[in-house]
Amino acid sequence: MSENRSRRRAPLRASRLLRRALRPGSRPGSRPGSRTGDDRGDVPGWVLVTLMTAGLVVALWAVAGPRLQQVFTQSMDAVVGQL
User: Fold this and answer.
1) Interatomic CA distance for residues 9 and 79, integer angstroms
2) DSSP output for 5-46
3) pTM score of the predicted model
4) Rounded distance, CA 38 to CA 26, Å?
5) Is the confidence at residue 69, as pLDDT, over 90?
6) Largest CA distance in the chain
């Protein structure tokens, strides 16, 4: 009887834990439903991602800049020539 009862409660506990884990303000590794008050997040990680993205944009622009300018000029000439 107790085995049957624990089977019925297991999905209830799992769904309750899932709802608590997905609640705004919860953090991975913390107790479900508890709030820490530290809302900074992963600032160094975001700074690194932002700097790497800016570096990729600058590198691509340096390599493909003249070709992009040529494509833009040709497309603008085609549009203005149709007017």
Assistant:
1) 68
2) HHHHHHHHHHHHHHHHHHSTT--TTSPTT---S-----HHHH
3) 0.40
4) 10
5) yes
6) 84
